[in-house]
Amino acid sequence: MRQCSRPGCPRPAVATLTYVYAESSAVLGPLSPDRDPGAYDLCADHSEVLTAPRGWEVVRLPGIDGAAPEPDEDDLMALARAVREIGMLEDEVPAPVDNSSVRVLGRRGHLSVIADSGQR
Asked: Residue 82: which residues within 8 A CB-CB, separation 6 or more?
């Protein structure tokens, strides 16, 4: 468990703060999976009272409370239908994508079913 980056704060971190200097924005989102030297991990209290420098915007992404945001039901159902349809195909050979080992098995809207045939 990572600790809040604020000096003297012993509480666990629940959010990660990064800066987008080109857009004068501070972005506060869920705790990143890995520690980033250019980011700040903040506890719930410090993430709630965060302010940005004058002229900057604070962008708060969902899911900061430590719980993962709930997936959109429509996306889950579309993904399930796409996987089911691909599973029913019998003789189609997947096409390679960008000369990599990843192959697209099918698409539905903005979702793709992919397979990685690479050796590890």
From this structure: 106, 107, 108, 111, 112, 113
From first CA to last CA, the distance across the chain in angstroms is 30
Quickly list DSSP for 74-87. HHHHHHHHHHHHHH
Tokens of 38: 């250019």
Return all residues near 52 (Cβ < 8 A) that are at least 6 apart: 25, 26, 58
Strand pairing category for 25-30 and 57-60:
parallel
What average pLDDT does the structure give for the chain?
Answer: 79
Q: What pLDDT, on the 0 to 100 scale, is given for residue 58?
A: 92
> pLDDT by residue (tens digit) across 24-59?
999 999 999 888 889 999 999 999 999 988 999 999
Joined together, the tokens standing for residue 33 give: 């999976």
Residue with tokens 């506060």: 28
